[in-house]
Amino acid sequence: MQVIAIAMQKGGVGKSTLARSLAVAAARDGLSVLILDMDAQQSVSQWAERRDADMPVVVFSTENELPKRLDQAKGVADLVIIDTPPARSTEAPAAVEAADLVLLPTTPDVEPLEQMPRTLRLCRGFSRPVYAVVNMANPTGPAEVIQTREVIEAMGARAAPVVLHRRKAHRDASASGLTVQESEPGSKAAEEVADLWAWVRSELQNSK
Ligand SMILES: Nc1ncnc2c1ncn2[C@@H]1O[C@H](COP(=O)(O)OP(=O)(O)O)[C@@H](O)[C@H]1O
Ligand SMILES: [Mg+2]
């Protein structure tokens, strides 16, 4: 069993969307997937309620419950994806500590990028691979992504090679308890998620 933590001390950057998209991609790859929703706002749990499929399994977890939840998942889940709250929390460090791989979604905007060093700091105590994932990039040209990568690298961090652009399909899918791979297969949004999952899968292989 491997664990991915998704963290960023900023709301609206796509943490929960990324957790759902990667979970569905992994499940479609044949993995047994559990999302641990550690955000009191429970947006992934609510998405699961809008959903019919039984994969991924979504369970809410407090920080205190996390060790027990992970223990219960052993032997059942192949992959656990932990979604964390948008603000400074005790949940995010606990998730990072439990993780084999940490993903920090950010939009190309100055506000989340300014917050990123705080989230990077909380990862620093643990020797986990950590990558920023640029999300909601402007689909019209590469300039914004190039600039955002430079900002991330200047912080001493690494960015994932795959970028997710701003695509309405993500919002529409969420409304129906789906992800873009399910609601709009073959769309650019779905292709980007597939590419990101392929990269994540190889990172997880390398960290075994
Ligand atoms: N790549 C994207 N393109 C367009 N909308 C997106 C994208 N990623 C996320 N969203 C939307 O942005 C909003 C915030 O995303 P969410 O995953 O809830 O962020 P967080 O969990 O970091 O607060 C949601 O309405 C979601 O549907
Ligand atoms: Mg969220």
* Largest beta-sheet details: 7 strands, parallel
How much helix, percentage-wise, in residues?
40-55%
How many E-type strands? 7
> What is the name of the CATH topology?
Rossmann fold
Distance between the termini: 10 Å
Order of strands, widest sheet: 3-2-4-1-5-6-7
What is the second-level CATH architecture?
3-Layer(aba) Sandwich
Organism: Paracoccus aestuariivivens
Pfam families: CbiA
InterPro entries: CobQ/CobB/MinD/ParA_Nub-bd_dom, DNA_Partitioning_ATPase, P-loop_NTPase
Domain CobQ/CobB/MinD/ParA nucleotide binding: 4-180
List keywords for this structure.
208 residues, alpha/beta, Rossmann fold, 7-stranded parallel β-sheet, 9 helices, 7 strands, 45% helix, binds adenosine-5'-diphosphate, binds magnesium ion
Give the SSE map:
Layout: E1 2-6, H1 15-28, E2 33-37, H2 43-49, E3 57-60, H3 66-73, E4 79-83, H4 91-98, E5 101-106, H5 110-124, E6 130-134, H6 143-154, E7 158-159, H7 169-175, H8 180-183, H9 188-206
Parallel strand pairs: 1-4, 1-5, 2-3, 2-4, 5-6, 6-7
Helix pairs in contact: 1-9
The structure holds adenosine-5'-diphosphate and magnesium ion.
Domain CobQ/CobB/MinD/ParA nucleotide binding: 4-180
InterPro entries: CobQ/CobB/MinD/ParA_Nub-bd_dom, DNA_Partitioning_ATPase, P-loop_NTPase
Protein name: AAA family ATPase
